[in-house]
Design goal:
Elements (H helix, E strand, L loop, with lengths): L1 H33 L15 H47 L10 H36 L6 H29 L5 H5 L5 H11 L2 H24 L11 H20 L21 H7 L2 H18 L10 H9 L8 H5 E3 L10 E7 L18 H8 L3 E4 L2 E2 L5 H10 L13 H4 L6 H6 L4 E6 L8 H7 L4 E3 L16 H12 L5 E6 L19 H6 L7 H28 L3 E7 L13 H5 L3 E5 L13 E2 L3 H9 L5 E3 L12 E2 L3 E3 L3 E4 L5 E3 L10 H32 L1
Parallel strand pairs: 2-7, 2-8, 4-10, 5-6, 5-7
Antiparallel strand pairs: 1-11, 3-9, 8-9, 12-13, 13-14, 14-15
Helix pairs in contact: 2-3, 2-4, 3-4, 3-9, 4-7, 11-23, 13-20, 18-20
Length: about 725
């Protein structure tokens, strides 16, 4: 009996020991799973009841809630700090660039821009502050031992640094493109990095701007650090902790939605960069976008280019319709090459021995307008236009907003579709159907490219030779002294070309100048060009008369060199034909509020043997891609076949365009919105402008689509092989 009692007692004690061990293990498991709260280390290992466990869990959760609330307040501080920075940058930019605000703009529109900008910037500040919430607050909620306060500070500082850099970049970018970071960023991704960097240093004060960005970042760091060290507000003792926790976790997604939609709770009432242009002032519309939202716009442009292969208004499914439209007939069921084939109607000019297509760097059209006659920037080209053997139209648009886009438009005959043709492998494997060189070679001409810069720039030599050019000449080829990072002066370029003419066979010359380009370092005094009178004449027209005087002075130089070459060559070789135009107009604006015509258009001058004022229709409209078919129609015999997407200006073309704008005989307008302006000299338009815009956009879609098809077809062929 006694032995049995002992066994029973042993069994009971064993049960108790097992219970103690199990409770201990349960306790450890619970607290290791839930948290590793430091105070628990001091708890003596003893059997705990369920109520003890619940008590400790409640206490730990309360502490977690308190700490999470404190971290949320820090995230909110970062958010408000960044929002304040963005709004300050916007106001500063608006005040500094106030001359860009149109005189007719009301204060109501200014306040509307500030309000909508504030709403849009909620998204920008929230996106950066969200990093602190995700990488600091949430991890510390799960793992209380973590200490990530310093990481939150550095994340906020990194956001401030990004804002500071973009803020400094905004000023020169807007002065050049009149936009706050647009598709030009994407189009310039493949540009010559070293050259661009040198230009930024020499012309746009890159070191000083970077220094300013560093100063702003350091100041932001210390201000944010001090702000984050301020005390947070604890939960009131009377507030139920469980109710507070539930309310807090309900508030977080609601606040996130509110910020995500820019001060709204649904997409319908939200604000995005796409619908931010609500004022009549283009400058204010750009101010609504903060720098992060503008870069988000750039991202959308880039993704669209990756998805669609370029700009918008491209519909491959309507290719047959578009090709018939551009041919001016209703022929159907033919291949692409046949649909682009055109037949010359017979020569209108004596066949010249020398043909010159001159692309003047930033050869803008606005210096030719009467209101800028006192600047005497375009006296040379205006004197050519005045002669009987010259034709001129103001309704002319460059192929794009970059030099390279102008060059590729002429070399390949393709409209700008947002793709860098000089970086497309297909551009070096096969000559495009519409390329200029083969067309002129079949007419008996040698085709040469003459460039004032270096052949390596953006592979321009490689591209032109791959597209059929017989020769390429750059600054190193004629041992010209270096002017700047871009190359040599226009004077040396044209002197070398003139010396070459005596030895050559019938030749077409594509010529690209470079002197009228930052850093604007031609010795103007040595060229008898005085900028002092320009600076005086520009007083009151711009806040930067000295800089604009320097730019107009270089325009004068280019204009003088080009026109002197034309007259000299015509004297020595009277059977010559010249086309004079510009690669783009963007960069050099007469005022802070240029019209679309002033900002975008370039001249078109046809000059030479046999040219008359009525050689082309008086109201002809054209662009870079129309130059080659126009010359072919003027000099080719009847029945000569050539391939072109663009129609010849001899046919009385009605529209031309680039990536941003379209132009007609009477108006110019934006492609992406309904902004339109009447051209200079048009007292009262005879056309319905709304209908003009619709027709212009149809032609844009047609030419872009066929250009894109040519590129895509070659991609498919290359894949098959």
């Amino acid at each position: 009996m006694r032995r049995s009692c002992h066994v029973f007692l042993l069994f009971v004690r064993l049960q108790q020991d097992i219970k103690i061990v199990m409770l201990h293990l349960l306790r450890c498991a619970i607290f290791r799973l839930v948290c590793s709260y430091p105070k628990l280390k001091g708890i003596v290992l003893y059997p705990m009841t369920v109520s003890d466990c619940i008590h400790h869990i409640k206490g730990d959760l309360a502490l977690r809630l308190e700490r999470f609330l404190a971290n949320l307040q820090k995230d909110l501080k970062v958010f408000l700090f960044l929002l304040l920075i963005i709004c300050f940058y916007r106001v500063y930019f608006m005040v500094y660039m106030s001359e860009s605000i149109a005189p007719t703009t009301s204060m109501g529109e200014v306040f509307l821009a500030l309000w909508l900008g504030f709403r849009l910037s909620l998204k920008s500040a929230g996106a950066i502050a969200l990093l602190g919430f995700v990488f600091c607050s949430l991890p510390e909620l799960v793992l209380p031992k973590l200490r990530l306060a310093r990481l939150r500070l550095w994340l906020g500082t990194a956001g401030s640094a990004l804002l500071a850099v973009l803020f400094q970049a905004r000023f020169p970018y807007y002065e050049v493109f009149h936009a706050t970071f647009g598709r030009e960023v994407v189009q310039g991704l493949h540009d010559d990095t070293q050259t661009i960097f040198s230009m930024l240093v020499e012309s746009y004060a890159l070191p000083m701007r970077l220094l300013a960005a560093v100063v702003l970042t350091v100041a932001s760091y210390f201000l944010l650090r001090r702000l984050l060290r301020t005390e947070t507000i604890p939960l009131p003792k009377w507030l139920n902790r469980w109710a507070a926790g539930v309310g807090l976790f309900l508030f977080i997604p609601i606040f996130f939605i509110f910020i995500r939609f820019g001060g709204s709770f649904n997409y319908e009432h939200s604000i995005n960069w796409e619908n931010a242009s609500v004022t009549k002032d283009p400058f204010l519309n750009e101010c609504i976008l903060d720098d992060l939202q503008a870069m988000y716009r750039v991202r959308d442009f880039y993704l669209n280019m990756q998805k669609n292969g370029g700009l918008g208004l491209i519909d491959v499914s309507r290719a047959e319709e578009y090709s018939s439209f551009l041919r001016g007939d209703r022929a159907k069921g033919v291949g692409l090459e046949a649909s682009l084939m055109r037949t010359a109607r017979g020569a209108r000019l004596p066949k010249p021995k020398h043909i010159f297509i001159i692309l003047g760097e930033t050869y803008a059209q606005w210096p030719m307008l009467p209101e800028y006659a006192d600047l005497h920037g375009a006296d040379g080209i205006k004197s050519l236009i005045a002669e009987d053997r010259a034709f001129y139209t103001q309704s002319f648009m460059p192929n794009g907003t970059f030099t390279l886009v102008a060059i590729t438009g002429l070399v390949t005959g393709l409209s700008d579709v947002g793709m860098d043709l000089n970086y497309q492998p297909k551009s070096y494997r096969e000559v495009y159907l519409t390329s200029m060189a083969p067309q002129f070679q079949r007419l008996g001409y040698r085709v040469e490219f003459w460039y004032g810069g270096y052949p390596e720039w953006d592979s321009i030599k490689k591209l032109s030779l791959a597209q059929g050019f017989d020769a390429f000449y750059g600054a190193p080829d004629y041992n010209a002294p270096q002017q700047n990072i871009w190359g040599t002066t226009d004077g040396h370029l044209f002197e070398a070309l003139y010396d070459h003419l005596a030895e050559e066979e019938p030749t077409v010359h594509l010529i690209m100048t470079i002197s009228n380009h930052p850093p604007y370092d031609v010795n103007l005094a040595a060229e008898d060009i005085d900028t002092a009178d320009l600076e005086s004449a520009l007083q009151g027209r711009t806040e930067h008369p000295k800089q604009l005087a320097l730019e107009v002075g270089h325009y004068r130089y280019m204009d003088k060199v080009v026109t002197d070459f034309v007259r000299r060559t015509m004297t020595a070789y009277p059977d010559s034909i010249f086309v004079i135009t510009g690669d783009h107009s963007i960069r050099m604006d007469p005022t802070a509020q240029p019209t679309l015509f002033e900002h975008e258009s370039v001249p078109f001058v046809l000059y030479g043997n046999g040219v008359t004022k009525d050689i082309l229709p008086k109201d002809a409209v054209g662009g870079h891609t129309a130059i080659v078919p126009t010359l072919i129609e003027l000099i080719a015999p009847e029945g000569f076949s050539y391939t072109s997407i663009a129609r010849s200006m001899t046919e009385g073309t009605k529209y031309a365009f680039n990536s941003d704008c379209w132009i007609s005989r009477e108006a110019i307008g934006n492609i992406d919105d309904d902004r339109m302006e009447i051209l200079p000299g048009i007292a009262s338009p005879q056309e319905d402008l709304a209908a003009e815009r619709e027709a212009a956009l149809y032609e844009v879609a047609a030419m872009r689509t066929l250009s894109r098809i040519l590129l895509r077809e070659k991609e498919a062929e290359n894949e098959d092989t």
